[in-house]
Amino acid sequence: MGEELSLPAVRDALVREEDSIVFALIERARLPRNAPAYEDPAAAAGRSLAEFFVREAEVLHAKAGHYQKPEDVPFFPRDLPPPMFPTKSYPKVLHPFASSVSVNDAIWKMYFNELIPLFTVDGDDGNYAETAALDFACLKAMSRRIHIGKYVAEVKFKDAPQDYSPLIRAKDTKALMNLLTFKAVEEKVKKRVEKKARIFGQNITLEEDSAGKQEGNAGDSECKIDPEVLSKLYDHWVMPLTKDVEVEYLLRRLD
Ligand SMILES: C=C(O[C@@H]1C=C(C(=O)O)C=C[C@H]1O)C(=O)O
Prior knowledge:
- This is Chorismate mutase.
- It comes from Oryza brachyantha (malo sina).
- Residues 128-246 form the Chorismate mutase domain.
- The protein is an all-alpha fold.
- It has a single domain (7-251), classed as Chorismate mutase, AroQ class superfamily, eukaryotic (Chorismate Mutase, subunit A).
- It has 9 helices and no strands.
- The longest helix is centred in the C-terminal third of the chain and has 25 residues, at 227-251.
- Bound molecules: the ligand C=C(O[C@@H]1C=C(C(=O)O)C=C[C@H]1O)C(=O)O.
- The site of ligand ISJ has 12 residues, from helix 1, helix 8 and helix 9.
């Protein structure tokens, strides 16, 4: 996110993140569930391959200069090394507390416990390293989208401090949640991600098939990911967690 903060600009950033999430899930859906990637072998200090992969990948990303921005939040923030190369300083448009707002633990549990069974087929093809790498991409894309909620909250606060401030002082989480919720926007988001899954998930061919079908008309059964999984993911988890980030940020906005 850049210096220009407005609700339409931040919402555009959220729309852009949808593409990354849909593509990451389509990629992961190519492989079966591969449960051994999530089991804790005794030899790996109680860590699954998936967890090992994310921890090690985050060390590399941190050395390369990631996790400086408030929307790039590591899953394992403890003991991450500092960047080894100069990093660009980003405009400080958020309250300094922004960097400590994280719902990654909830994203982690949701992804492994709820989402993976919904969009991967039961099975084991032995490609565990690839599985872990694809899981990391899914987690990263969802985490980024959800933590952009910090900017959403800042813009909403700036647009109406007179409405937000009393609720923040009263620590009225429920009223804050109501005030920042836009049901009509949420309905559109759900429809759009479902449509993106339907379009990005189709096989592209150059010929019309025998039934005369063309791209854009593929049935959901031919789709690389069930489009309804995307609307469910957003409805049950991505949007609620984004709003949790918004509330968490707002509660500290006046500190
Ligand atoms: C992110 C926003 O806040 C809320 C969360 C939304 C989302 O996660 O997509 C959409 C609308 C709001 O209820 C927003 O207003 O754009």
